[in-house]
Amino acid sequence: MRRTAVIDLGSNSFRLVVYDWDPGGPWTLSDEIREPVRISAGMGEKSLLQPDAIERAVSTAEVFASFCRASGIDDVLPVGTSAIRDAHNRDELLDLIHERTGWDVRVLSGAEEAYYGYLAVVNSTTLADGFALDMGGGSIQVSRVEQRRLREAESLPLGAVRVSEGFLSEDEASAKEMKKLTKHVTDQIERLGWWGGSPRLAGIGGSIRNLAAAAQKRAGYPDSGVQGFSLTRETLAELVDELAGRPASKRGKVPGIKPDRGDVILGAALVLAAAMDAGGFESIEVTEAGLREGVFFERFLDGVHPALIDDVRGQSVDNLARRYGHSGAHAKHVEHLSLELYDGLADADLVERSAEDRDLLARACALHDIGVAVHYDDHHKHSRYLILSSGLPGFDQREVELISLIARYHRKGEPDVSPLGALARDGDQERLALLAGIIRIAEQLERGRDQTVRNLRVASENGSVVVRATADEDDAVAIWSARRAAELLAGALERPLEIENA
Amino acid sequence: MRRTAVIDLGSNSFRLVVYDWDPGGPWTLSDEIREPVRISAGMGEKSLLQPDAIERAVSTAEVFASFCRASGIDDVLPVGTSAIRDAHNRDELLDLIHERTGWDVRVLSGAEEAYYGYLAVVNSTTLADGFALDMGGGSIQVSRVEQRRLREAESLPLGAVRVSEGFLSEDEASAKEMKKLTKHVTDQIERLGWWGGSPRLAGIGGSIRNLAAAAQKRAGYPDSGVQGFSLTRETLAELVDELAGRPASKRGKVPGIKPDRGDVILGAALVLAAAMDAGGFESIEVTEAGLREGVFFERFLDGVHPALIDDVRGQSVDNLARRYGHSGAHAKHVEHLSLELYDGLADADLVERSAEDRDLLARACALHDIGVAVHYDDHHKHSRYLILSSGLPGFDQREVELISLIARYHRKGEPDVSPLGALARDGDQERLALLAGIIRIAEQLERGRDQTVRNLRVASENGSVVVRATADEDDAVAIWSARRAAELLAGALERPLEIENA
């Protein structure tokens, strides 16, 4: 296994992130240190890094370097962004960092910064055509994506720290100040000439993640991270009101907002709102990936340019399954049997065919047993926990919840969709009962883990559903086990269900 | 990694359990199939296995064998217990099983069965002097343990299936029947002459686990398994009343009782109650380990006789830490610094020294970061989840909860003991704040993972607590980080706390 540390010397915070990976996967984020260094503080119009900011930056770089040494990580990729790029005295900082840590910090151009943000977005969401916005402390990077390729990209000096210092009073922000900030942002974005015109916008950066977390807490969402959350313009407006109604010192107390980000979060929210309005976006899809993942993907997919993961959803599920040693023949065969059963039921008009449901079923099959890594007992519950904790890049939160629930009920229990909360839709209880009912039978047919039952056919006969299994060898036990697990599916179909040898 | 399958052909159920292990550890239970074969059903006084029972037994053995083949497990240890041992026609069954699976089933004598139950108890609890009771379907095994050595052992024909068939009506059990059963058990146990006289009794077997689970549900305990749970005689009496008040067909619906055990669970409860009364035991400590673990330990500790793990608690923590790759220098050093801080505070009379608290702190240090295996984000919460899910043999449930909570609060959050529920005691909130406050500082002093801070000394000066750190190199950053994490401990000590270079 290889280890790579990406060090993001951002304008608002410095972050060290360690990735453990094998070429071709799996990969995982294994360690992280974040420091709110706020290196851009007080840079002002002269664009000079202040002595105390340099001092904080160098000390933090030393901690990170000492961490890497102690952890035996020698693949270290330090990158600097907006504040360092724009500072007239940046060499002073870079020389000091080099002296104390040996690092040659790579200062990214605006275009490079936008490129890595773009990589993070297209490798952690299903965005193929649309736009991305990366909100940093010093700058924002906006880009247009077409068929997963970067078509336009620009870095604009509209980062959260920069606009907050430039436009908003330190304590109470006035309506006039906010209006002026909004106009400033709108002008710069409209000047681009290519922003907007598609419904999809993806967002990255700590401020956007914080705003998403705050929106989730308001709506009573399950607390499982912001990956795949969709923040609406409407909710953002409510957050702006709430933040503007407090002095800056109290904004970090809004649930979901990090205390050390409180003084710049209103500026960030206003920039985002203006950018959404300028492009006509009604919502923004949030990802937990960021610039640092973009830099990592380039290392991970060495030689591929642009460093794109072919199939984000597939890779995301496969990555999770492999992390917990669950990508073998059994999982694949449960998936095969489940899909044959689903397709057979749809062909016989016993269920309404849905590509979405079929996909969720397949993903749940791939992951149903990962909880064994925690403990064999209750492993169906542990599978759910691990799926929810992973975030599953490429899926929205409702999909992740549903996948986790199908896995949860693959062995036993009465399916219950109440954990979906605000994510629930009509028919979800029936959907879960159907999909869990299917995987439960497939799991029992694969009980010997020997792929004895090769294929399934489904027929509707005299008001009953008949599932016929074709097997290489004696499948008496598989069929006997599956029959005992058939109650859930029979209930979901509202018919008697028989399982027999073909 | 090696894989061993232990196959327990029990009188009530057959069970295949797969252990993944390395000589010297770690080991884990990685797979399991249980079938309620009920091979002893209808054996009667003639001690003959019935044809349909033999049929069920052979089919199930075939499933297990096919599972082992498909999983590539060739270290297979099949053992038979009471029902098979006592059956006059056992060779018929053993020959059929051999023919269909190739297995040579090892039929355990009563003494051997008791020995493996004893191994399970002493290797999964801290019982050094006391008694053990293993409740099977056909027989119970009782034993006396002295300084962790087996001193007395006997197998008695008082298993749950056997007494239920012999004494209780199929549907409603009468008071007279129950009294007769109780007297029968009491007589046999009293005849031993060595049962009782110590407060400690440990219990194993599926029926005892079910009774413990039912008791936990009644008391509103956190749902994290029965390992380390203490079932009191008083609660057992309540369960007997509840079970006796229902027809046999409804007893499997009592929360905590497996449906397929419903018809024998009252018999099991009555045997246990009589055995506890005969020995004067007020409670029984439940372990999830069983005969199969005893058989496994003999393989795992090959060459050691008796196959005893030296330090159950230490091995249990170490096993868990190693499973999640968390046994390195960092965890050990956080433990070292935490204990120095604890001892320093006790020496300075700032906290009341408690060997129990100190031990919990050390265990939590060893496990504080295991949650990184789930996801770096929120890994403190994942550590708690993994600790609770593991059960930690050798610790009682209160200890496991406290260890998990100290780990939970090692980075952030306001300590909250409410998850302890019925396990809480006076002073727990203060205890948690103190211990989490200590580990939080130690974690920050070890932030670079480089063991820079070697030692700590504690002094009480002018109403303040002063912690002085000795370091090999520049420890400015470690001290600066630790200061920012000191609030929790300062609050717990109700004094200002300073951290400085020695």
Spatial sequence of strands, sheet with the most strands of chain A: 8-7-6-9-11-10
Percent helix among the residues of chain A? Answer: 40-55%
Provide the CATH superfamily of the largest domain in chain A.
Hypothetical protein af1432
Main pleated-sheet profile of chain A = 6 strands, mixed
Number of strands of chain A: 14
| Molecular shape of chain A | elongated
By DSSP (H or I, 4+ residues per run), the number of helices of chain A equals: 19
Q: Would you tell me which CATH topology of the largest domain in chain A applies?
A: Hypothetical protein af1432
What is the structural class of chain A?
A: alpha/beta
| CATH architecture classification of the largest domain in chain A | Orthogonal Bundle
Averaged pLDDT of chain A? 93
Count structural domains of chain A: 3
The poorly predicted ranges of chain A are: none
Radius of gyration of chain A: 26 Å
Q: What CATH first level of the largest domain in chain A would be assigned?
A: Mainly Alpha
Tell me the distance between the termini of chain A.
47 Å
Overview of this structure, please?
Two copies of one chain form a homodimer. By secondary structure, the first copy, chain A, is of the alpha/beta class. Chain A folds into three domains: 2-107, ATPase, nucleotide binding domain (Nucleotidyltransferase, domain 5); 111-290, Nucleotidyltransferase, domain 5; 314-501, Hypothetical protein af1432, CATH 1.10.3210.10. Chain A is built from 19 helices and 14 strands. In chain A, the strands form three sheets. A six-stranded mixed sheet of chain A has the order 8-7-6-9-11-10, sandwiched between helices. Chain A is elongated. The mean pLDDT of chain A is 93. The interface between A and B is large, with 38 and 39 residues.
